[in-house]
Design a protein that fits this description.
single chain, mainly alpha, Tetracycline Repressor, domain 2, 12 helices, about 65% helix, about 0% strand, globular, disordered N terminus
Length: about 220
C-alpha cells in the first residue's frame, strides 16, 4: 500500500481510504456470518442498488482479508447471497468488480475529507489538516493492524493510478492553501505514522497518537 507513497512527487500516496472503508464494512454484514444483508430473490429485484452494494462490500472484505487473488466471482456471489448470474448483471467480469470497489473507496475518502474541511476554519493548510485528521481518526477506530494483504490490494495498477489522480486533483483544487514543501512533509509524516500502524505486531499495543497528531496539525498553520 505504501511503498509507492514515498516515490510520488505529488505528496502522500497512502490510501487511508482502505482504513476508512474497512472500519465501516462490518455494519453492513450479517453478524457472525460475514455475509451481506441481501433479502429474498423478490426483494433483490426491487433493490438492485442494495445487491450491487452488497457485492462490493463482500469483494472489499475478501480483498482486505485474503488479498485480491481471493476475490473470485463465485466467492463474492456466495458471500453476498446472490447467484453468479446475479453478479454478472452488475459486473461483467472480475476487473470491473475490482475497479468498482476502488471507485467506491475513493468516494468514501472524498466524503471523509469534505466533512473534515467543513469543520476546519480554513486558510493555510486546510486540506492537509483534513487529510491528517482523517487518517488518524480512522486509525483510532481500527482495532488491529492491517496484514500484508492490504499491501497487495494497493499494489493493483488501477488502484495506484486512481489514488495518484485523486491526490493530484486535490492538491490542484487546494493549491492556494496547501502548496509548499512544509505541508508536503506533514502529509508524508502522516503517511509514515499510518505505515507504522500497519506494520505494528499483533501483540503490541497501539500507542497514543494524540501528541503526534497535535504536532502535525500545528505544523500546518505556517
Amino acid at each position: 500500500m505504501i511503498i509507492f507513497s514515498y516515490l510520488s512527487s505529488h505528496g502522500p500516496a497512502i490510501p487511508g481510504v482502505i482504513l476508512i472503508l474497512s472500519n465501516r464494512l462490518d455494519a453492513k454484514l450479517i453478524p457472525n456470518t460475514g455475509h451481506a444483508l441481501v433479502d429474498s430473490p423478490r426483494n433483490r429485484k426491487k433493490q438492485p442498488d442494495v445487491v450491487r452494494q452488497a457485492l462490493l462490500d463482500c469483494a472489499t472484505k475478501l480483498a482486505l482479508e485474503h488479498g485480491l487473488a481471493a476475490v473470485s466471482l463465485q466467492a463474492v456471489a456466495s458471500a453476498a447471497g446472490v447467484t453468479k448470474g446475479g453478479l454478472f448483471h452488475h459486473f461483467p467480469n472480475k476487473q470491473a468488480l475490482i475497479e468498482a470497489v476502488f471507485d467506491g473507496m475513493m468516494e468514501n475518502l472524498d466524503r471523509e475529507i469534505d466533512q473534515e474541511l467543513e469543520r476546519d476554519k480554513g486558510g493555510h493548510g486546510t486540506f492537509t489538516r483534513a487529510y491528517v485528521r482523517t487518517l488518524f481518526a480512522d486509525r483510532a477506530l481500527n482495532k488491529s493492524p492491517w496484514s500484508a494483504q492490504t499491501m497487495t490490494v494497493l499494489a493493483d495498477p488501477y488502484s495506484k493510478s486512481l489514488w495518484h489522480k485523486w491526490m493530484n486533483d486535490r492538491l490542484i483544487k487546494h493549491a492556494e492553501t496547501d502548496a509548499g514543501m512544509r505541508l508536503e512533509i506533514v502529509r508524508l509524516a502522516a503517511d509514515g505514522a499510518w505505515l507504522a500502524h500497519v506494520l505494528r505486531p499483533d501483540n503490541q499495543a497501539a500507542p497514543d497518537d494524540t501528541a503526534l497528531l497535535q504536532e502535525l496539525i500545528e505544523l500546518t498553520k505556517g
